[in-house]
């Protein structure tokens, strides 16, 4: 199967993958490449459109688990890799499925990579790609602020199951990040483009330069910032997603994706050594169809998420709340994000309110949901309703107290995924009403 997707998933030619911050003879070339790169929405529009079996404007769903052949010798030729999906030959849907492959093409277009493969969950995408790139005895350098499940995978599961160690660092400190890389042993530098939940923005060009100088592969989780940031354009080698979030938008599907070089996707699908092939994190074709129908309006949704998040963050700050949002000029990474983001998509749809204590955080969320209907107390993100959770006791609960403190997660940190349902002013009035109720109870006072 080694060559089966070589021509099937390629969407764009390989881009210059290093974007140095220091001057070099290639600086002008790199700047021009970045400046002329397609907008994500344009790239999606230029990707192949798959029509239905009978000429439908939407593709057909290939719901088969297995596929028939017309001649007996064809099957053996498929297993040797002579015939594959690039020539419309399929064996079994754990290998390749036409509907899932089409979603992969869309994800590759979105992220500007050669290829992409879609999986049954975000964690299956993350764990599979790490186990493909890192072997027993190898080493990973990772951000100390990550989604709790990813942190647990790196800190606990991989050391126990695979003898893979991880050093956690503050990726804002490029010097310490570089020092943590062990020559010859470190295989992956892993971080989130926008960290969960503290909204630290990664200097993707700078981190990629450091990693590539040491021969290390850069893997970036872009779940918080699809459309907003394109890590592969900025130097990252691999981009992973929990498609369950913004890309789905409906809080009804669990899915993931790995976007990267064709050679990586081929290796993940290798019959003898491929993590996707052998661990089997297969996406259902019906799920892939639903997701493929949502991606075309992702840009519109992201813009509205981001617009409302910025407006609310600005207004919350004026009310004296402690707001964390990279769209605010006082955020330490504001100008970094402004320099690396795709224009016109905003600064992300996530914001945090630091209420200092868990009791204050819980009271705020209780009033916002149960008395003023501003949003819902639930984990996840990218939904059309605003979702709220206290990160320390939910999505970051896998971290111990010291790890939370190091990551900057206070006990009262409320993570908000700002939705777009209802009008902006309607929702803001609900938020102000909640604050008024909190003022009456003595839990909040304006500065």
* CATH topology description of the largest domain: Aspartate Aminotransferase, domain 2
Helix coverage percent: 25-40%
Q: Low-confidence runs (pLDDT<50, min 5 residues)? A: 1-36
- Kindly report the average pLDDT value: 89
Series of H and E elements: HHHHEHEHEHEHEEEHHHHEHEHEEHEH
Could you tell me the number of beta strands?
Answer: 12
Report, as a whole number of angstroms, the end-to-end distance: 64 Å
Give the biggest beta sheet. Answer: 7 strands, mixed
Protein name: Methionine gamma-lyase
Family: Belongs to the trans-sulfuration enzymes family.
GO molecular function, one term: carbon-sulfur lyase activity
Organism: Helianthus annuus (Common sunflower)
Overview of this protein structure:
This protein is an alpha/beta fold. It has two domains: 27-296, Aspartate Aminotransferase, domain 2 (3-Layer(aba) Sandwich), CATH 3.40.640; 298-441, Aspartate Aminotransferase, domain 1. 38% of the residues lie in helices and 12% in strands. The chain has 16 helices and twelve strands. The strands form two sheets. Strands 1-7-6-5-4-2-3 form a seven-stranded mixed β-sheet, with helices on both faces. Strands 8-9-12-11-10 form a five-stranded mixed β-sheet, with helices on one face. Helix 4 runs parallel beside helix 11. The chain is globular and about 80 Å long.
Task: Furnish the topology, listing elements before pairings.
Elements: H1 27-35, H2 40-46, H3 72-79, H4 98-111, E1 115-119, H5 122-133, E2 139-143, H6 148-162, E3 165-169, H7 174-180, E4 186-192, H8 204-213, E5 217-221, E6 238-242, E7 256-260, H9 262-268, H10 275-279, H11 285-294, H12 298-318, E8 323-324, H13 334-340, E9 350-354, H14 358-370, E10 376-377, E11 387-390, H15 401-407, E12 413-417, H16 424-441
Parallel strand pairs: 2-3, 2-4, 4-5, 5-6, 10-11
Antiparallel strand pairs: 1-7, 6-7, 8-9, 9-12, 11-12
Helix pairs in contact: 2-4, 4-11, 14-16
EC number: 4.4.1.11
Protein name: Methionine gamma-lyase
GO molecular function: carbon-sulfur lyase activity; methionine gamma-lyase activity; pyridoxal phosphate binding
